[in-house]
Amino acid sequence: MSTTVLPQSTPSSDDRRIWTALALWIAAALVLAASGVVASLPRPFVPLLIWSPVLVSVWTYRRSPALRAFVAALDLRVPVLFHVVRVFFGAAFLVEMAAGRLPASFARLAGPGDIAAGVLAVPAALLATRSDRTSRALVLGWNTLGLADILAVFLMAQRMLFIDGDPRFFQTFQRLPYAALPVLVVPLVLITHLVVFVRLRARALTG
Q1: What total of structural domains would you count in the chain?
Q2: HEC profile for 57-72?
Q3: Rounded Cα–Cα distance for residues 189 and 184 (Å)
Q4: Residue 47's domain spans which residues?
Q5: Is 8 domain-assigned?
Q6: How many CA atoms are closer than 13 Å to the CA of 25, on its beta-carbon side?
Q7: In whole angstroms, what is the distance from residue 19 CA to residue 82 CA?
Q8: What is the tens place of the pLDDT at every residue in 72-82?
Q9: Helix, strand, coil fractions of the chain, as percent rounded to 5
Q10: Is residue 113 part of a domain?
């Protein structure tokens, strides 16, 4: 199997602005999560918190040559390895379930799925450095399954929010680190999955 050589380049002013905007979003989201504001919002605002950054990112990508160039030059291992964070949250969901602080119907879906997606992100990142078709197909498989998992968890969370109304679910997601999930972690999981799809498609077209 052949490997691609990652070019070394000095970050442009556009790249620095994008990294700065990302850092500011992360900081603002963490402050929002820690403030308890998310817990006080009406329930319909929760899915809006998750999907708004995703939709804004897609809209900006389609209209910004600078962002498209940034995504095209980004080391593919970066968005893939971000998903290692899902191991922590997946394990935490199972711990909260065992302690009786999280509904089993949610934890048994979200826990194992997130752990698997996070653990498999490591070999996927190693394969992401390779340009052969088999490696690309394996990374695509991981990305597809990881996205399917987070969408299934999202739908289950909506059931908890709007149908079941289990108070343990609300109480758990009112405190850190879980309060950071709707304002930061889940949007970044969705955005990075989309970035991986875009990059794999570009490789397929050129290779």
Answers
A1: 1
A2: HHHHHHHCHHHHHHHH
A3: 9
A4: 13-206
A5: no
A6: 17
A7: 15
A8: 999 999 999 99
A9: 80, 0, 20
A10: yes
